[in-house]
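Follow-up to my earlier ticket, as requested here are the two runs.
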Amino acid sequence: MAVSRRMVAIVIVGVVGAAVACGGGTSSPPAVETTSAPAPTSQVLAQLRGDWQAQKDTMMKIADAMPEARFGYKSTPPQRNYGEQIMHVALTNVELLKVLGGKAAAPTFTAESAKTKSEILKALADSYDYGTALLGEQSEASVLQPAKDSPPWLGPASHARIIWTLLAHTMDIYGQMAVYLRLNGIVPPASRGV
């Protein structure tokens, strides 16, 4: 429950931050400069880095919580199985992170190359490490710049919006994984002791 509230707060902060960064939000008269003090620095990048690392930690724990023998479990036939859910996050992370450009090399795993629990967990970790490396290449100014190749389904997006989109997408999958665990009698790690 605490993780869910935190992730909702992250998404809300991200949406509000995107609106403000894009000139949205409430309209108010321009501020009158009365001192020569420098403008406060943005904390968007620092918050994105923190949220990205927190989500990696959460996802690694929930991914590891299911025994390998149950990685093929799915709640209904049309659903992805547990291992496929994890790989969906890893593959989506990498593909959308590529939009940021950057010098960091993208991981080269595929859905077919990661089959065992350890291979799937490594792919997930590698996808987050790739994002960490790309965020490390950003500055507070560049993270708010438009991504050159934002996918058509997302529309124009800043580098920050790409990360916010991935954070929100992954929480959708996290929610499904939590149900899979509970259907197998396992309490998700983030819910233990709550």
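Run two:
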Amino acid sequence: MRVMGVDPGLVDTGFGVLEGRPGAVSVVDAGVVSSAAGEPLEARLDAIHGAVCRLIEARRPELLVVEDLYAEYKFPRTAILMGHARGVIYLAARQCGVAVLALAASEVKRAVTGNGAAGKAQMQRGVQTLLGLAELPQPSHVADALGLALTGLARVAGITPALNGRVPQLIGEPQPQARRADMEMRAARSAAGEPQPQARRADI
């Protein structure tokens, strides 16, 4: 089963795609889609939507796992802005015919680290251990996205990685190079004169 985790953000949206088979989980792709902070909100949302659509089309996940929205009453504006980003991600999944599962951040942290209040560094180490990665997934948005995908795989398909000390290779991509899908996405947006989200591969 192929699952894509997405950690929504208006500036940086983390994504991670995992391929799961009984006892084995491999990283297919991971990285960040970035939009310029100075752009109008509608341009940034359009960029996120377009990038997620292209990632779905390129990687063909069967399930999209998104962090559920939560709000601290002291910061309602942040929750509203995050809701915008989640909305266009949901729309992209619907348009591409992919089911969406929303998971609470505390559930993902508990599944990955055993602590529902784990910090960013703990999540990075937990994801690194579970996936047998040679290095910490960077930046933290990528670790969160991979954690979402891991938790979704376990919940929906009962698939968890086998911790046998091996370092899995990226499927079809042994070196962390720029993805062709991202290059095509940027070229298409440039030709159309649209704002270009800066999608980049994760350093894992």
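The only thing I checked on run two: The chain has one domain: 2-201. Let me know what else you need.
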